[in-house]
Write a structure and sequence with these properties.
Elements lengths: L11 H12 L9 H24 L1 H4 L2 H15 L3 H7 L5 E4 L5 E5 L10 H22 L1 H4 L3 H29 L27
Helix pairs in contact: 4-6, 6-8
């Protein structure tokens, strides 16, 4: 006589699996006709409704703006370290208390490349997406703005804004990697001024 736990006999599948293991057989479970019919009916009805839904929302699915939004959302989500934050239950930021017992953020970026706060990933991801948006608007300036003056003003502002975003991104990167000292500007020992004052290559 086999000794079977009560909680292992709660289902026909479990019972058959237990018997197959004891007898070293592979007997499949035969379901009644009405069970098979209901399962197939639910499957086909679900597929029919899904096809109808896709046909209904087809004008939205072929809209490039929708896919651009999905791409930006996916890129932003993937660059935040969302999976790392969920697996390691990373806190948003480091919070401390002042002498009055009031909570405040004492650290936004965790030092080191192999660990992070959840909030710092969102900050860097937002900066990267905003910088990409600046480049995209500059590339589309010919169609987005009508007059030449508006185009020039918009491109100039976008260059300034994009430069600020780039510097903010580099600042965040240097917090994680203090050894990184590459600058956007030329080194101090380079000759500055007009072309005539270059490195001596003027003919």
């Amino acid at each position: 006589m086999w000794l079977v736990k009560k909680d292992e006999l709660f289902d026909t599948h479990k019972q058959l699996e237990f018997v197959n293991k004891q007898l070293e057989n592979d007997v499949p479970l035969s379901l009644p006709f009405h069970v098979v019919f209901i399962k197939n009916l639910v499957l086909f009805v679900g597929l029919f409704l899904l096809i109808g839904l896709v046909a209904k929302i087809r004008p939205f699915l072929i809209n490039p703006t929708l896919w651009f939004g999905i791409a930006m959302f996916g890129f932003g989500l993937c660059t935040t370290g969302f999976v790392y934050n969920m697996l390691n239950k990373a806190p948003i930021f480091r919070f401390d208390q002042d002498k009055f017992g009031k909570m405040f953020v004492s650290e936004y970026f965790m030092r080191g490349m192999r660990q992070q706060y959840a909030g710092e990933g969102y900050i860097v991801s937002a900066i990267a997406c905003a910088f990409g948006g600046c480049l995209l608007v500059m590339a589309k300036a010919e169609t987005l703005f009508k007059t030449t003056t508006h185009k020039r003003i918009a491109i100039a502002l976008l260059i300034i804004f994009g430069f600020g975003l780039l510097q903010a991104y580099l600042m965040c990167y240097r917090i994680k990697n203090p050894w990184y000292n590459v600058s956007f500007f030329p080194p101090r020992h380079y000759t500055r001024g007009p072309i005539q004052r270059d490195q001596g290559n003027v003919i």
